[in-house]
Specification:
Elements lengths: L8 E2 L2 H23 L4 E7 L3 H16 L3 E7 L5 H13 L5 E4 L9 H7 L11 H8 L8 H13 L7 E5 L6 H10 L3 E5 L6 H6 L3 E4 L17 E4 L3 E4 L5 E4 L4 H4 L5 E2 L7 H19 L10
Parallel strand pairs: 1-11, 2-3, 2-4, 5-6, 5-7, 7-8, 8-11
Antiparallel strand pairs: 9-10
The chain binds guanine.
The site of guanine has 8 residues, from strand 4 and helix 6.
Length: about 300
């Protein structure tokens, strides 16, 4: 409960991710020094979507900064599905590549499902391959999608014992909503997945101790939907145009309203966003270690 009425604590994703990246860099050094192994991440970008270009550039920079190898493959938007599948086949067989990420969305003429299924599951650092999806759903040891993993790390830092808490995930995407719900379930939360057809959404949200908003609709979740003392994780990153023509990034939650009611909340920007790449780097280290049957310290698996 937030009795003091001073507003919610801010969950600082920037600081959290900096800490995680430092741990990754330390683990990369240890793998290199003790096992002569340098984790490598291949990122495939098809076409020229400006947002995707920014993400891919960022991933490359951070991968190299963490001491890992980065392999960038930028393909023309006109590339055929067969050509893309051939590239992935080569990356699957390349021993220097431990993680493969194909930036989404892909052009319409390419079947994204087919491409994801072509990635070797143990190199699928996005955790999107059906094998990894199934492992997450059945409690096995697969690759966990980066954004939900980052949300979970921040949430567990704030609420170490999630058992029995009511959690609502607003949004049912394969990238965030569904895997997030599985992670919460694995922590023994009582989980509701809400979506565009959910009736009485504000009332559903009001019952929750944990609110994860991942719908991609600017400031949809209002302050009076939030149960006092709830923890709010805002996955949304929406660029909105202000009356003066300038733009601003906002989340899926109306931050100023929600922070008055919640006990803790992630800001946008600076909340969940920075955690995604940090978790991608982490997954790449995990993938490299597993492929070489190297045990990682506690907390890594
Ligand atoms: N596009 C937006 N988010 C993601 C992500 O997490 N992984 C990939 N591969 N593409 C994305």
């Amino acid at each position: 409960m937030n009795d003091s009425n001073t507003g919610a604590a801010l969950i600082d994703g920037k600081a959290f991710s900096a800490n995680l990246v430092a741990q990754v860099a330390e683990r990369v050094r240890a793998l290199r020094d003790d096992h002569h192994l340098t984790p490598g991440l291949a990122v495939v970008l098809v076409g020229e979507d400006p947002a995707s270009q920014v993400y891919v550039r960022n991933k490359h920079k951070r991968t190299v900064e963490a001491g890992m190898r980065s392999f960038e493959h930028t393909l023309d938007a006109s590339v055929t599905e067969a050509e893309l599948l051939t590239l992935i086949g080569g990356l699957n067989d390349d021993p220097e590549v431990h993680g493969i990420l194909v930036q989404l969305p892909l052009p319409r003429h390419i079947d994204a499902g087919k491409v994801i299924e072509a990635i070797r599951p143990d190199k699928d650092v996005d955790g999107f391959h059906p094998w990894n999806v199934g492992m997450l759903a059945s409690g096995g040891r697969g690759m966990v999608p980066c954004t939900p993993l980052g949300c979970m790390m921040m949430l567990k830092d704030r609420v170490p014992d999630l058992s029995g808490k009511r959690a609502i995930v607003v949004g049912r995407s394969n990238i965030v909503g569904k895997p997030m719900a599985h992670l919460l379930l694995a922590e023994n939360c009582t989980v509701t997945i809400a979506h565009s057809r959910t009736r009485d959404l504000p009332d559903e949200v009001r019952r929750a101790d944990i609110v994860v908003a991942a719908v991609g609709r600017p400031e949809m979740v209002r302050g009076d939907w939030i149960k006092p003392g709830a923890v709010v994780i805002d996955v949304g990153i929406n660029r909105v145009v202000l009356p003066d023509g300038k733009t601003r990034l906002v989340g899926d939650v109306q931050f100023e309203e929600a922070r008055k009611v919640a006990s803790a909340i992630t800001p946008v920007p600076g909340g969940v966003g920075p955690m995604t790449i940090a978790c991608l780097l982490r997954n790449t280290v995990v993938a490299a270690a597993r492929q070489h049957r190297i045990a990682l310290p506690d907390g890594w698996e």
